[in-house]
Amino acid sequence: MVSSDQRRRQLAREKYARQQQRRAEAQRRARRTTVIASSVAVVLAAGLAVWASVALTGDDSGSDTVAAQPSETPSAAPTEEKQPEPAMSIDRKATYAMALKTNVGDITITMDAAKAPHTVNSFKHLADKKYFDGTKCHRLTTSGIFVLQCGDPKGDGTGGPGYSIPDENLNGLGKAGQAGTVTYPKGTVAMANAGPNTGGSQFFLVYKDTQLPPNYTPFGTFDADGLKAVEEVAKAGVEGGAGDGAPQKKVTIEKAAVTKK
């Protein structure tokens, strides 16, 4: 049985989707005299998985790559006219906190608007609209890279807000080494993507130092209590005993809120 609280969250997400659709229709009407290209670019939804659409190095040598599970990799789909990212409304000089209330414990993410203003602004915009409420963290990796991925309203790695944000702070973790990777330290929060400048709403929490190419916007860190909660999820493993897939211990973001510190 669906609770009234769950129903309220679902209605909020559906309302947001309708608002995005109406905005798209208004933009198309305003440009009805514009010649539209005959072909539509085919792109992967941002954040199919942390590594689903680009190879991510799984070890220091860079010779071993980790790919999404073949049987669960969503196929690419044509993308309608994308919405513009939200208008900038945050204080670029400030620090913001994103509080995630989850069924496995509270996770507080500290976000630096000076280093990643577009990313922080987007999370503030989405959290204010209750976009993340009731969503699940759909992917866990326990081999090669060590992350828990969240932020998809569909819960399968294919969802997003209908707009993209640019990559930011890619040099924030240092210069890539000989293997072409940098260390994403445990406690780091970064954006999933499907290529350059395709960030949406999906993000990943690093629970153990992980080597990755510097292609994923590191926009914050999460607290010790949150790290402990994610480590417990990782300890329970992936469904079916694999090293990559849905976490055995289900994680649901019950409520998300972004505030200025």
Automatic annotation (TrEMBL):
Enzyme Commission number(s) of this protein: 5.2.1.8
InterPro entries for this protein: Cyclophilin-like_dom_sf (IPR029000), Cyclophilin-type_PPIase_dom (IPR002130), Cyclophilin_A-like (IPR044666)
Comp. bias regions, Basic and acidic residues: 1-28, 79-90
Similarity comment text for this entry: Belongs to the cyclophilin-type PPIase family.
Keywords, alphabetical: Isomerase, Membrane, Rotamase, Transmembrane, Transmembrane helix
Domain of life per record: Bacteria
Keyword Nucleotide-binding: no
Pfam families xref list: Pro_isomerase (PF00160)
Gene3D superfamilies reported for this sequence: Cyclophilin-like
Role noted for this protein: PPIases accelerate the folding of proteins. It catalyzes the cis-trans isomerization of proline imidic peptide bonds in oligopeptides.
Biased composition (Polar residues): 63-76
Top-level class of the enzyme under EC nomenclature: isomerase
GO terms for MF: peptidyl-prolyl cis-trans isomerase activity
Sequence segments annotated as region (Disordered): 1-32, 61-90
Ranges where the PPIase cyclophilin-type domain occurs: 102-258
Record field: transmembrane: 35-56
Protein name, as recorded: Peptidyl-prolyl cis-trans isomerase
Catalytic activity: [protein]-peptidylproline (omega=180) = [protein]-peptidylproline (omega=0)
